[in-house]
Amino acid sequence: MTSNGLVGSSPNRVGGRDRVTGAQQYVADIHLPNELHAKLVKIEEARARIISIDTTKAAQVPGVRLILTPDDLPHPMPRFGPQYQDRPVLAVGEVKYHGEPVAAVAADTREAAEEAVALVQVEYEALPGVHTIDAALDPDAPLVQDPSSRSGDPFAYSNIRTEFNFGWGDISAVEGEADYVIEREYEFPMVTHFAIEPHAFIAEPDGDELNVWSTIQHPYLLQKILAKMLDLPLSKLRIFAPDPGGGFGGKQHAKLEPLVSYMAMKAGRPVRLVMSLEETFQAVRRSSTRVRVRLGLTSEGDMVFSDIETNYLIGAYVDIADRVAGKSSYVAAGPYRIPAVKIVGRTILSNTTPTTAFRGFGVPQITWARESTLDEAALELGIDRLDIRRRNLPEKGFEFIPGDLPADGDWSQTVDKAAELIGWDTPVPEGRGRGIAIGLKSGPTTGLSYSTVRLLVDGSALIFCGTSDMGQGARTVFAQIVAQEMGIPIESINVIMGDTATVPFDQQTSASRSTVLMGTSVYRACKEIHGKVKTMAARLHGADEVDIEVDSGTVRLTGEELPIVDVVREGLGPLGGEVIGNGEMRKEKEPDHPLAGSAAFFEFNCTAIEVEVDGETGEIQIVKHVTVGDVGTALNPQQVKGQDDGAAIMGLGHTLMEVIIHDDTGRIRNLGAIDYRIPTSKDLPLELISASIENKDGPGPYGVKGISEGSLLCTAPAVGSAVRDATGLVIRDLPLTPQRVWEAMRERDRA
């Protein structure tokens, strides 16, 4: 299983050359004949009542072909969203966050559109808004959403959108068994995705059909939403989704595709909108979060109960934020054996950019608070921070969340490996500190993936599947599976994605599902081909099918082994042709489950970090960063390492520097690359080690589990733990900027 291009090896990435040479075509590279260029009209307020929109001067700009305002759209205003249909195509009556478009211009050139946008006169009245958790929860706070739009909602007259309640056992019944109780509150910042490729959209009327190009992770969900809004059958709405240049969850769901579609249909011409990085900042972000953790433990360090409250500030419209908060809160107690757990999770509306999914799906926010609180408890109890985690880890097969998937790995191996690689039991050099933390995320709870594999007469193959390859290497892994099962070189395989009229349905690309769900579908398509090849071999050799085995590229007859491609070539004969296999992977909903489905697998990670803190400036240097994941099987070890490395560095972003800053009125102050800091080569750890635990115990092909989010989950608490170890400082708000650390050190010195 390690030959060239097959499972378990790391062949050259499929499509990798085009990515690194710039030959790959992204949505922004696509141009259509007779296209119009669109730009958005906005106002510099986070909340305002729209009085009037005057387009007279803008319409006089040469080349302007269309100016779309709310009056030009159907009444009532069409609304959309993956969970609640609450987001309008354009702001209607009121702007609810900084950057919400109030109108749009389409012109022959981008320059003409930009000139016209500047001439659109919007009369408005600035209104007070809510931009923080405390402000939103104030009983006298203005309501972000109209209560009349939330009929039957018990929280309609508040800014609480949803409250989740999870848990098991009875805390009051076991609380007396706890020798020590600790309660702490931690804050996680509002950050943006910062994908290299900003969002881009094109819509093209084509007779009674509509073609839409989008930087979308879920093309079939986009097709469903647009078909409903535009009253089109699915067969008349075609979504093109070229490989995105990074997504991280920010490109999961519809954003401005409905607007561009209405513009194209009204203009009768293709319309393209390519957002700037600054505009993308105003379109997507991760939820900022406040988490309160109350833990009860015995003096020996056994967990007795966990009482956790999470508050997610989700913005003006829900998008997928309710699912983020619900799914992450469900596993808030972490991968530990705890007799009694109570979890309350809330989503809170605000006059800020709507929250969408972000790598880790809400888990990093909670993990920061839980693991940091556990560290504080260990120090108070005089227990080693590693030992307290080892002591409470469930063994493989233990149902640590009653009624859900039991622990699906020997997680102690992961923790022990991280401790070994960081040198946990060795002396810490002067001026440095070490920290360790554990993270766990549920994999997908539902799933539906179809695929088609076509084995051609010359021994090459085509794979058709609806997964988006946004950098996670899905094309390569699927090609490796087919190469393994058909016994052909990976170079002879072509993977087709990104067109709803060409590839079969896939539910979505998220939750680290691609290899497990779509990979299983592709594997099953190969097995269907194996069945047909077996029938073909029986006919050619006059044998009984029960005496023939087909596996891993080989047909085994009595006393003879033949390559699959030789049998196919002979079986198809002079007419040629192909052998086709269809695969399906389905994980149905479970109506009685709190999340509508148990986890297909868990992403489990242990991160250990050594830091050095500058006592004069507060700057944190990551000396050594270790991340270890429980992956089941590394189908492509190099890609696993790349994903883990990337996620680890992304985690350092929200830990050390990233934060969206608002002024007092809710306007974003640090739009774009100059004022918003992300990690660069200067911020990398001096040593970064990514390791995997492989026990072939995952649900995917060859025992694989999903990866790519694990090493992001617990970066922050591991760094925070190391900073505490080095300085004695307990800092409960992220990011750990030099200024914040310096101020904490000065306060410590004064005390």
Tell me the number of strands: 28
In CATH, the architecture of the largest domain is: 2-Layer Sandwich
Number of domains: 3
Name the strands of the widest sheet in spatial order.
3-7-1-14-11-12-13
What gross morphology would you assign?
A: globular
Compute the separation of the termini in Å: 62 Å
Cα radius of gyration in angstroms: 27 Å
Which regions contain 5 or more consecutive residues with pLDDT less than 50? none
Class by alpha and beta content? alpha+beta
Mean pLDDT: 96
Strand portion: 25-35%
The largest sheet is: 7 strands, mixed
The CATH topology of the largest domain turns out to be: Aldehyde Oxidoreductase, domain 4
CATH class call of the largest domain:
Alpha Beta
The tally of helices reads 19
- Share of helix, binned: 25-40%
Could you explain how this protein is built, in words?
This protein has 751 residues and is α+β, with helices and mostly antiparallel strands. The chain has 3 domains: 16-24 and 447-587, Aldehyde Oxidoreductase, domain 4, CATH 3.30.365.10; 31-127 and 193-281, 2-Layer Sandwich (Aldehyde Oxidoreductase, domain 4); 288-444 and 593-750, Aldehyde oxidase/xanthine dehydrogenase, molybdopterin binding domain (Aldehyde Oxidoreductase, domain 4, 2-Layer Sandwich), CATH 3.30.365. It is 27% helix and 25% strand. The protein is built from 19 helices and 28 strands. It has a 7-stranded mixed beta sheet with strand order 3-7-1-14-11-12-13, sandwiched between helices. A 5-stranded mixed beta sheet has the order 9-17-16-15-10. A 4-stranded mixed beta sheet has the order 18-26-27-28, sandwiched between helices. A hairpin with a 6-residue loop joins strand 4 (79-80) and strand 5 (87-88). It starts with 15 loop residues before the first helix and ends with a helix.
